[in-house]
Every structure is written in C-alpha cells, then in structure tokens.
Amino acid sequence: MIRFLRDRKVRDVLWQALATVGLVVVVVFFVRNASDNMVKAGIASGFQFLWRDSGIEVPFNITGYKPSDTILALLWTGIVNTILVSAAAVVVATVIGFTVGLMRLSHNWLLSTLAAVYIEFVRNIPLLFFVLFWYFGVLAALPTPKESYDFLGIAFLNRRGLSIPLPNDVAGFQLALLAIAVLIVAQIGLARWAKARQARTGRDFPTWMVGFVLCGLLPIVALAVAGAATSWDVPTLRGFNYRGGFVLVPEFVALFMALSTYTAGFIAEVVRGGIQSVRQGQIDAARALGLTPGRVVRLVVIPQAMPVIIPPITSQYLNLIKNSSLGAAIAYPEIVAVFMGSALVATGQAIEIIAITLGIYLTIGLAVSAFMNWYNARHRLVTR
Amino acid sequence: MKAVRPPLPGWLETLRQRLFATPVDIAVSFLCLYVVWRISVPLVDWLLVEANWRGTSREDCTNAGACWVFIRARFAQFMYGQYPVPERWRVDLLGVLAVCVAAALSWRRLPRRREAAIAALVVLPPLGIWLLYGGLGLRIVETREWGGLMLTLFLAIYAGLIAIPLGILLALGRRSRLPLIRFASIVFIEFWRGVPIITVIFLASLLLPLIMPTGFNVDRLARAVIGLAFVIAAYMAEAVRGGLQALPDGQVEAAQALGLGYWRITRLIVLPQALRIALPAMTNEFIALFKNTTLVLIVSIFDLLGIAQAALADPAWVGMNMEAYVFAGAIYWFACFGLSQWSRRQEKRLSAAYGR
Amino acid sequence: MKTVCRIAALAAFFTGSAASAQQLAPSPTLDAIKARGHIECGVHLGLPGFSFANDKGEWTGLDVDYCKSLAAAVLGDATKVKFTPTSVQQRWAVLQSGQVDLLSRNTTITFSRNATLGVNFQGINFYEGQTFVVRTKAKVVAVKDLADATICVAAGSTEEKTAADWFRERNLKVTIINFQKNDDAISAYDQGRCDAYTAGIGALAGQRIKFKDPNEHQILTEIISNDPQGPVTRWGDERWQLVVRWVLNGTIAAEALGVTSKNVEEMKAKSASSEVRRLLGAEGKFGQMMGLSDDWMFNAIKQVGNYGESYERTVGMGSALKLKRGANELWTKGGLLYSPPFQ
C-alpha cells in the first residue's frame, strides 16, 4: 500500500482527484444553498427578464435605445457605452502616456521632473478621486445653458454637455466614407510599392507627404461635400436646454478625462521602462549612421522597445476597460450603471445579472488580449 | 565650425547643460517654468496662503482659500468613523502596536528576526480583530460603526493578509505539473483578473449571503474583505509567478538531486528566493489594493472616502467638497507614495545583491 | 397536597404549552431577534426627517421611530434596534438575503415589487407625493413648465419611472439622469447639472437643507403621483409579518384612541374603552397571540409615542421640515390614516 502511494503517478492522480472532489463539493454546496434561499425568498429566476420592457431612461446612447425597448437592448446600450468611453480613453491615454514617458527621459531636468511629478501624482491616488474631481470640476467650470459657449452657432458647450449638429440623412456620408475607404486602400498599396522600390533601387518616395494628402486632406474634402449636400439637425435653445443634434454629456467627458489621464501615468512608466531596455549601443550606432534624432527614435528605439512595451501596456488597456465601471459613480450609463444598477433594481435578479455582467467583461478582456497578442506576434523583431 | 563655449564655473555649468543647452532646450525650460508657475501659485494660495485655519463652524471661513476648519471639526470622524468615542483607545493602541512591531522587525540586526516575524504574523491579526471588534471582556463594537481611515487600513491589511498566502498557493498551482490543479489555478486567476473590482464588491455583498446556508450571516465588512482578497490574490499570484520564473532551474534540480520532496524544496529553496525577487511587484499590487479599497463605498461601507462624502452631506458643512477630497486624497497619496518608494529601495537592494 | 399541586402545575404547563403550540406558527425571524437581542432594521442612507444619523451615529426620523416602536413591542426596549443604511439599489438584496429583518426606508408600495421581488408591504406610515425642486430664478410654477428640462433622479426609484411616464404621456421631452445614490443626484443638481431634482415632497423637505443655499431653490406644490410608503418584509414567516403590520396599526390606533406616551400608564389602568384596554394589554392577551408579551403596544407607545407624536417630532411642526399632516392625518380629521380595529 505504502509502496503504491510512493509511486509518483499514483500520487498525482490521487491529489487531483482529491482537489476535484473538494471543488465539486464546495460548488454543489453553494449552488444548493442559493437555489434553496431563492425559492424560500420567492425571487424569480431564469433569463426571461431580458425580454421585458426596461422602462429605464438612458440619456446618452448611440444605439437608438428607447425606454420602451427590452432590458436586452438596455444591456447592449450599456456595452456600447463602455466600449465607447474605453476606446476613446485608450487612444488618448496612449498618446499622453508616450509623451510623458519620453519627457521623463529627456535630458532637460525641468521637463523630466515635471513628467515625474505627473506620474507620481497620478499613480498614487485612487481613480475614484479623479473621476469625482473631473465630474464636479467640469460641471463647475462650464456655464449654464443660457450662457453657453457658442461655436459658430452650430455647436454649444455648457453644463449639460457639448451639443453638436447631426445630419438628418446619412446617404451622403455613406458615399463619403466609401470614398475614404478607397483612399486608404490606395495609400496602403502605394506605401507597399514605395517600400519595395526603395528596397530595390534605394530611391526614396515621399510616402508621408502623399499619404497626408490622400488620407488627411481628401477625406476632409469628401466629408465637407457630403456635409454641404445634407440637411443638418442643429441644436437650438428651447426652454431650459439645447435640443436637437447630439449631446456629448459631461459624464462622458469626465470619465474619459479621468481614465485617460490616470492610465497615462501608468503607460508612461511602461514606455520609460521599454525605452530604457534598448541598449545604448543601438542608439550610438544609429547616430553614427547619420540618422536624425527623430529617425533614431522612430526606426531604431521604438521598434526594439515595442516587444517590451506591449505586454504591460495590454494589461493597462485591460485595466482601463475594467476601470470604466467607475462611471457608475457619476451616472455615466455604462454596463455597471445601467445593468448592475438600474436593471438589477427593476428585476431583483441578482445572480443572473451579475453572471451576465462578469461574462461581458471577461469576453471583452479576452478579445483585447487576443488582439494585442496577435499584434505583438506580428511586430515581433525577427532576431537573427 | 562650431564655436566652443568656455565652460561656466561650477553649478552654473551644470544648470546650462541640464536646462539651457540648445535654443529648443531654453524654450522648453521656460515653458515648463511657466506651467509650474501657473499651477503652483493658485494652488499654494488656496491650500495655504488664503486658507482658513481657526474656528469651529462654516461661518468662520471668511477667506477665499480652503476651509480647513471643516477638516479639524471632522478630523476624528475621518479617522474613526462612528467608532464609539470611549472605545477609540483600542484603535490607537492597535495602531501604535502595529507600528512598533513593524519598526522592530525592519531593524536588520534584531536577534531571531525570522522567528519574531512569524510570531508577529500569528499573533497580531487575531489580536487586531479582538481589539477592534471586542468580546472577551471588551465591549463589542460592530463593524457598521467602523469607518474612516481605520476602516481603509483594516480593509487593505486584512485583505492583503488573506491575499498573499492565497496568491502564493495560486502561483505554485499555476506552475504545478498536475494538469487539473494547474487548470483550476489558471481559471481562478484569470477570472478574478478579468473582472472590475466594483463588480466583485457587488458580487460579494449580494451573492455571499445567498449562497450561504440560511441563518448563517457573513458580516458586511468581512464580505468586502473576501471580495477584495480574491481579486488581489489573483494579481499577487501573477507577481509571485514572475519571481518563480526568474529562479534558475538549477536551484530546483540541485535540491531534487539532494533528495528533497516538493514541499520542502518549495519551502526552503524556491519560495525564499522567489518571494524576494517578487517583493517589489507584490508591493505594487498592495498599493493597487490600497487604492481600490475606495470602491467599497458602492456598498455603503464608509471608508475614508465614504466618510468624506458622508461629511459633505452634513447640512452644517455643505460645499466643502474640495477640502474633503484634497485631505482624503493627500492621505492616500502619502501612503501609496511611501510604499512605492520603499518598494523601489527594495528593488535596488535586490538588483545589487543579485548583480543584475 | 404537594403532589396534587405538582400534578396540577404540570397539567397546566402541558395544556398551556399545547395551546400555545397550536396557536403560534413557527417564526424563525422572531426567534432570531429574541436570540440576538435586537432588531435589524434597513433604513435610508440619510434622509433628514425619515432616517438620518448625526455625527455621533444616533439615528432619528419617522422611519427610524417605527423600528424603535417595533423593538419596544418585541423586546420591551426601544433602543434594542440596529440600523443598516441601504442605498436604493441594495435595499432588496439586503432584505431578501436576511441581513435585515425589515426595511423601513421610504419605499413605495408598487405592484411589480410585491409580485416579483419576494417582498410584502405591511401598511403605510407615510403618504408621499412626488414633486420637483427647481431653482427659484428658473421661474417654474407648474410641472409642465419643466418641458425640455434635465432632471436628476436616483436610479431604480419609483420617482425615476413616474417622472419619465408623466412627461411621456404629455408628449413633453425631458432628459433624465440616473444617479446611483440620492446624495449624488442632489449634489449634481446643486452643481447645475440638472434643472430639477425629483423626489417625494416629504423627502425633498428634508433634502433641501443639503443644498449650498437652500433659499435659491423652491419645491413645487404640484404633486404628480401618490407614493404610499411603509415597512417591507420578506415573503414567508407570517407571524413576523403579523407583528410588523400590527405594531404599525397600533401606533395609529393609539393616536385615534388618544393614547400618548404621557398618558399611557393612566389609560392602561383607568380607561373604560375596551379597545384601549386590549391595545395596551389590560385585557384580551393580544400580545400572546403573536408570541409577544401582552404589554407590547404599551411599551411601544410609552417609549416612542403614538404615530402623531412621532410625526410631529420628526417631520412635522416640531422638526426642521415643518410638514403639515395633510394626507398623513387620521381619517377622522380629513386624512387617510386608518387602523383596523383591535378586536
């Protein structure tokens, strides 16, 4: 018997069996308690509630949701709002983070100290403070609707948000978008051709200049033409507020600002670490070849720093998405606020709603990790 | 041909090199100075110069700056919440005790330091609960009366005490050669890392009572501690895993060659080294935990920020938002900054010791 | 002789216990309350006049008073009650999961809550009506003037739905911003995020003092809904529900019968009215029928007072809120309050 137990394989199987049984017992215990308690308390269960009318107002949505829609539609609106604010904040946090990270490495003492102060300030205070600060700070700084900042009579900024015009008809814009898509494809083709030619003949082609015209100027022209050809729903002051058009609510702005400035502090540290991991010899060699400082950074430093930067920056992006749930504290209608908040109160079905919410965050997280892994694999340096 | 400038004397030369080396540098430096000027002057004005320090009520705040009278009047609440006044000595005693023990343990030449640390870890946490909660001769102070900074510290420290061992076990589990245990650890870690803490706190406060047998009530605060501990354990596990991975394989192989079993290798060879390497990363996770304790106010537990908000709802002190948030924020900042500096020092010592 | 006495005593004991076993349904909630020695009462996070804790943690208010009466009736001591502040969202989960024995927190009785949440409403201790608070300089007189306005409200409250429905039915457009907590909604309104904040007229009277300058704001007199509010219990445990319901009735009946905290002893000893005597336990053994002591309402009235006394002290003329009785007056005086007879 003892010999039998000394066999490593047997022991392995036994350990695992033990762990499995323990786990199953615990899970069964909890599930049985839950179902007992729910029956006793008379709480409804199941997922039918998703198709009930929600009756909950969501002042900020781009899904066209109305209170007469189902709770499922409400959930979808919450998801879209979460993604919207996260996507916007990820972009801006990356830009600020890279800037501050590079500033931190500047040989100018004042500049690097300023960056260090920013980083240390942001990283050591709970995010909730920033969310509340931006929200009430933004509200206090903006004028009342009657005294709005007026931008050419078509856009208005006040405590109720930024009102911008919306097109009544999107057909023209669809054409314009199609044209832009064609331009981008053309630009990619051109860039490939230019690169191939440079590799073949060594002749440089002003890809960036052409790209600027193709993807920067022409789309503006296309959009302007489309804009002129359609009628617009311009916000106008009616009674208390500006009506019509689209309103970017202060909750969005506050959450967006808080998330991007906060996460930027963490990204800056990641960027600094990544760049410092590039060996000085690489930079010296690039300089010796006569590359300009900008090109040294762009062609030598960043490509080598990226593999070091991308994994930690991915977890910062994931943190940002998860942190967007703090929008619930300032009435930004994201998943936690509309679903775990309003819908949970309306239906009382805690278990189902929490399970769905967690599932959504896990799915979003997996999708982002998968994308970043793919990106990292594609851009990994080929070491020779 | 560039004109070679003769070096300026002493610190002026340093200044020139670090701030005014090129025309671009000069412009950048002046821009920075301008930014600093624009931010710091009104800030200092509000915080110190124009601030109100004396008095007892809102009416005493006549200057344009911050009304620190509010903080003074509410200071005890910010520290203890609703903890009964005659029992507050217990909180103070525990705080003094904890600081003394920590100070003694950080003295490197303490005799039998290791044994003392283990003894402190075994004795202090239950002692702390007894002092704070009561029983056995002390008046019971229920957790609903706790609040303020003491609650924040309690949440962070006790969640950390659960999370660290759990995180170590999970990290070991994730590197186990038994597929089922590895799989279970990975699922646990990735699940808790993948969801927002706010939802976990909700989960703990709504679901824990539902999945417990009838009549078995888990304390509200305990629920928050458990929720926070699970999440942080998952993050801690990843930090420890980093330490485990940094350990050269030769260490384990040598120990195996000596005929040591798994647990003894882990206890004597792997963990002491891996934890030392992982310490800075673990400290960072603890800082994150400390900051995230603010989220418990979503389930009406009045931590430092929650108490600050509750104080704002007091009609006698309406409109003190800035003062309350700045005061509470400063406490968080000093605590987190101190911890991170400590962790950085550890990291430096470590890299010196390992020659990396 | 001794033996006979013993047998008689034993017989009496057995018949007595058998009788009470027959009458009394098991009540896990009451047993738990008696075992732990206090009632767990779920209240509002902080609503002056209804449930509000001062900086020493002492709770006062109409809803708080009700729980104190309950403690006096069940345990004989009005101080044996502990309050759990709950947010709008948390309240149902806190009640359902058994963390509190009842909710007494400005909760409106509605059909869907009763039908789907596994909760029962045990009567009405405050007839609330929803209205709005606006800035005086906005010159709003009637609710319909709020067309195109932005309105701050606590998410998951009846006010949220009522306001949305009211404006939709009249084809008026408003923007409604849902906050997770009442206080968040109030401070956002105070900061100018919204043109109006909506809540019950009684609640607003209390919350108004949370504004930076209460004089800049005005509460509209128009009421857009009826929100009867009262104590809430879980489904099941009928005997506990009985106690919750009849303590509330008892405080109202006491006012109707003229029993106050001042004269309760005299009334118990000398009152000629049978209903008073039954209420105060001088005859009828009503307390025992629910498994309480017979002086249950006597204790409640003596220690906390009848409904009218409590009202005046917490929200009425004797308080900062200065609310008139209105609908919350006895039916004999033009109000809606009414207790079924103690018979």
TrEMBL record, chain A:
PROSITE patterns: ABC_TM1. One of its GO terms (biological process) is amino acid transport. It is a multi-pass membrane protein. GO terms for molecular function: transmembrane transporter activity. It holds the Pfam family BPD_transp_1. Its main location: membrane. Residues 79-372 form the ABC transmembrane type-1 domain. Keywords: Amino-acid transport, Cell membrane, Membrane, Transmembrane, Transmembrane helix, Transport. GO terms for cellular component: ATP-binding cassette (ABC) transporter complex. The chain crosses the membrane at residues 12-31, 73-100, 121-142, 171-193, 205-232, 252-271, 326-347, 353-375. InterPro entries: AA_ABC_transptr_permease_3TM, ArtM/GltK/GlnP/TcyL/YhdX-like, MetI-like, MetI-like_sf. Gene3D superfamilies: MetI-like. It is found in: Cell inner membrane; Cell membrane. PANTHER family: AMINO-ACID ABC TRANSPORTER PERMEASE PROTEIN YHDX-RELATED, MEMBRANE COMPONENT OF AMINO ACID ABC TRANSPORTER. Belongs to the binding-protein-dependent transport system permease family. HisMQ subfamily. This is Amino acid ABC transporter permease. It comes from Reyranella soli.
From TrEMBL, chain B:
Its main location: membrane. It is found in: Cell inner membrane; Cell membrane. The keyword Membrane applies. This is Amino acid ABC transporter permease. The lineage of its organism: Bacteria, Pseudomonadati, Pseudomonadota, Alphaproteobacteria, Hyphomicrobiales. GO terms for molecular function: transmembrane transporter activity. Keywords: Cell membrane, Membrane, Transmembrane, Transmembrane helix, Transport. It comes from Reyranella soli. Belongs to the binding-protein-dependent transport system permease family. HisMQ subfamily.
TrEMBL record, chain C:
Keywords: Signal, Transport. CDD domains: PBP2_BztA. InterPro entries: Bact_solute-bind_prot3, Solute-binding_3/MltF_N. Residues 38-267 form the Solute-binding protein family 3/N-terminal domain. Residues 1-21 form the signal peptide. One of its GO terms (biological process) is amino acid transport. Pfam families: SBP_bac_3 (PF00497). It comes from the Bacteria. Belongs to the bacterial solute-binding protein 3 family. This is Amino acid ABC transporter substrate-binding protein. The lineage of its organism: Bacteria, Pseudomonadati, Pseudomonadota, Alphaproteobacteria, Hyphomicrobiales.
